[in-house]
Amino acid sequence: MQFKKFVDRLPIPPVIKSRKTTKNNPYVVSMVQTRHQFHQNLPKTKVWAYNGLVPGPTFEVKKDKPIYVKWKNKLPKKHFLPIDTTIHGASHTPEVRTVVHLHGSPSAPASDGHPEAWFTKNFGQTGPEFVTKTYKYPNRERATTLWYHDHALGITRLNVYAGLAGLYLIRDEEEKALPLPKGKYEVPLIVQDKSFNPDGSLFYPAQPSNPSPDLPFPSIVPGFFGETIVVNGKVWPYLNVEPRKYRFRIVNASNSRAYQFQLSNSQSFFLIGTDGGLLERPIEVQSLLVGSAERIDIVVDFSKLQGETIILQNQFELGNPTGDVMAFKVTKPLKGKDNSQVPAILSNIDHIPLTEVKKVRHLTLVETQDEFGRPMLLLDGKEWDDPVTETPLLDSVEIWELENITDGGHPIHLHLVDFLVLERRDSNGNLKQPLPTDFGLKDTVTVNAGETVRIIMRFEPFAGKYVWHCHKLEHEDHDMMRPLTIRKHKKS
């Protein structure tokens, strides 16, 4: 379908009203089937949505103030997207299962959103790792941009694509004291890609292009790349801005697509934060690579662009319709003097001394084939159901060397922990230039083809069952996910 660009105004997801919560009096968020208009020339489209909204409502919470959330599944018993029952978790299980993962949160295992902690409508059936109906989020990390999304084993790609994703912001006093753009000058951008059928309904492929006759139907695809870019639930929207500085919190919530974000006027901008919060110092950049699930926090200065329209672009796809993401129209009058600044020092990041490292793991990202001859990406050559091999001790420090011997990039996400990137090396072992985002705390890192990326992290504050996986959702659903068990120390 053809869509006119930049005709729909960028919506801002509403914020859930803040209040004190307890286990017996939590926030209640329901997953429902509803209809959502992605573009003014489209009819309303069937979606799945948290509290009926696409994206879901935004949580704004304070550091060290825990909250409780009860996630309710009120969805139909049948999925409206094609389910491949040959992949892990999707056979001999209910067709519609959900579980919510707060991406980037150091939550206890019962509240982490384990892929096998799924539940059906009204908790009628639950998965083997299901523990509780009400999740507790400690919010003990620094101020940052998290996001929540579905994580049900074998159907994450479908549930997230159907609409189950939303923003979660943690605030703290340190960040509040900085002179960064605030209030209406701080704008969230949840970036996804979608395709639509001629009747306006969401399109998701039921099998790969050029399928062999031996493939099951439906059959998982190796990756999904939509024909349109959607920001905050609108196809190619625009935002009217004043000629001043704005802060944008960008989440790549696409299933598989990576973005090299840049501005159409070649203007530089400042990277001030990554997955785990503010950098120590801002970095002036021309463009930024953001893989699936990664977040960037940037400041753009429109002060000298009165009357102009600037396009946020994906450098990887310039010349294609999907090379454009959204438009900033510098048409609003300046409401008052812009006193915001990008300070030279933003925060302090605790760097773990290498002397504390207890174990170094070398883990490969490999491609093989499944029994139907389909490409199958694996972590260290192991499938989801193979015995757990990553079993760090609670409070221990490890370095993981992630070696990508496939021909594509993989955004690798670890649950529970943030980490720091130590270095990148090419296939010949030569040190590579770090990416700007490598200087911040991360929970997801893109490992490009032929690269080895070394990361360091401390496994705390909880022991128990977690996972690590590629965040290209089609890869994750087709076995590029492994259990991660944090072990308690044995009592002497």
Automatic annotation (TrEMBL):
Record keywords: Capsid protein, Virion
Gene3D superfamilies documented for this protein: Cupredoxins - blue copper proteins (2.60.40.420)
PANTHER family, alphabetized: BILIRUBIN OXIDASE, CUPREDOXIN SUPERFAMILY PROTEIN
Molecular-function annotations in GO: copper ion binding; oxidoreductase activity
Taxonomic lineage: Bacteria, Bacillati, Bacillota, Bacilli, Bacillales
Organism: Peribacillus simplex
All residue ranges annotated as the Plastocyanin-like domain in the record: 42-174, 236-304, 376-488
Name the UniProt record assigns to this protein: Spore coat protein A
Assigned protein family: Belongs to the multicopper oxidase family.
